[in-house]
Amino acid sequence: MASRLIQVDDFDLVIFGATGDLARRKILPGLFRRHAGGQFPEGARIIAAARAEMDDAAFRADIRAAIAEFDPDRAEDPELPGFLDRLSYVRVDACGEEGWPELAARMRKDVVQAFYFSVAPSLFGDLAERLARHGIAGPQARIVVEKPFGRDLASARELNQVLARHFDERQIYRIDHYLGKETVQNLMAVRFANILFEPLWNAHYIDHVQITVAETVGVAGRAAYYDHAGAMRDMVQNHLLQLVCLIAMEPPWHFGPDAARDEKLKVIRALETVPPADIVRGQYAGEGDEPDYLTDVGNPDSRTESFVALKLRIANWRWQGVPFYLRTGKCLRARTSEIAVVFREPPHSIFDTADQQKPNQLVIRLQPNEGINLKVMIKEPGPGGMRLVQVPLDMSFAEALGPEGAEMPDAYERLITDVIRGNQTLFMRGDEVEAAWAWADPIIAAWEQGSARPEPYQPGTSGPDEALRLIHRDGRRWRDIKT
Ligand code: BG6
């Protein structure tokens, strides 16, 4: 099943920080795949802006090397030279005056203009101010900003204010790359393009929801950033809360930017404060030659968490009494992200074998092997009475959609084309980000004020035992972390 390809309008995309890790690893390889897919018009141009002394040829060679490293299957792609021809390089000093007139001279006024701030948030204000002062960004221009968007409510507010001095909210695209993942968008398709689930999607029929985002990697290589963030700021405040929103939100009247984001905001505002007893933080220990968290970050006193598990409640009619159990961490048993909606059991069993009854579960696998699995009870085949067994109705999207469907576009590909198209639906609005910080701040503040250390856990496990107890004490179990 081939996806319909619609070319985007002609554009100039400027990437600030184009020589940095994110640009080389994700943004430029993603743009190359869209180019190879035929989505860009002839004239579309990508202008790299960074501080390094470099010319067009050197930058193109660097991106050729980046694609060979991060997307090796495409290193010899015949489309690569055509993509590299779209690239040019300008040396620009974000905090100084150098390079801005040159950048202004390169920009066309009659095409879509997008500016990707792939730089430290401390530079957002400088970039926005200079873009405005040099008359580079027209009223239709878009800016794209990466997470982390602040480290608490106060800093997020300040960032919003800094950007608002020069750009309207409709020009600001705050990236949460989880929203660009195909299966995350599929959550909305499953919920709102089918009649099947909605009547059951509430506290009457759902017992609880589990969301797991488990990674096998540690934090080596990003220690400086991570040790100041921790799993709560790095993953929960943004990616996991966004997943909660998509599961819990009311149907928006329309799949458009404000309708969808209004509904997500209502969910975030309805999140109850999490009491300390309902949250567990962990820090990975070392094993054999593998260093522990403290060694990885080079800070023997660090109390930063590499794992969080918590029980969340949403104070509204639909979700009254339904716990959402969330967990995420580094150095866990497997790399897997999934959402499991666990239904209640039937109110009365007509079978003598009621003890074989298990609750229905709808499991949405975000990665790897994206798909949906609905667990249902059936009769175990064979003579001699009615025995029940639970079986999965398993749909892998790759299998269901055929070979072309198997190629899931990377989140960045989708999100950058949305920026060019001017569609903000999958980007976070300023008030949404602030509401998420307002929920996370008291939890983080309590940790920072207290003296307790995160619970240690062995790498390759499913986290600290306390996280198991968090759910066991409610008479429930986490699903296994496995690929
Ligand atoms: C990033 C976090 O936002 O998401 C990383 O900063 C994390 O710490 C990553 O590893 C996970 O993304 P994905 O797409 O690999 O699930």
UniProtKB/TrEMBL annotation:
Molecular function terms from GO: glucose-6-phosphate dehydrogenase activity; NADP binding
Organism taxonomic ancestry: Bacteria, Pseudomonadati, Pseudomonadota, Alphaproteobacteria, Rhodobacterales
Ranges where the Glucose-6-phosphate dehydrogenase NAD-binding domain occurs: 14-186
Pfam families linked to this entry: G6PD_C, G6PD_N
EC annotation from Swiss-Prot or TrEMBL: 1.1.1.49
Binding-site positions, NADP(+): G17, A18, T19, G20, D21, L22, A23, R24, R51, K147
BP terms from Gene Ontology: glucose metabolic process; pentose-phosphate shunt, oxidative branch
Top-tier EC class: oxidoreductase
Described purpose of this protein according to its UniProt entry: Catalyzes the oxidation of glucose 6-phosphate to 6-phosphogluconolactone.
Keywords: Carbohydrate metabolism, Glucose metabolism, NADP, Oxidoreductase
Pathway membership: Carbohydrate degradation; pentose phosphate pathway; D-ribulose 5-phosphate from D-glucose 6-phosphate (oxidative stage): step 1/3
A Gene Ontology cellular-component term: cytosol
Catalyses which reaction(s): D-glucose 6-phosphate + NADP(+) = 6-phospho-D-glucono-1,5-lactone + NADPH + H(+)
Binding residues annotated for substrate, in chain numbering: H177, K181, E215, D234, K330
Family: Belongs to the glucose-6-phosphate dehydrogenase family.
Glucose-6-phosphate dehydrogenase C-terminal domain boundaries: 188-479
The protein's name: Glucose-6-phosphate 1-dehydrogenase
Gene3D superfamilies listed in its UniProt record: Dihydrodipicolinate Reductase, domain 2, NAD(P)-binding Rossmann-like Domain
Enzyme active site: H239
Keyword Cytoplasm: no
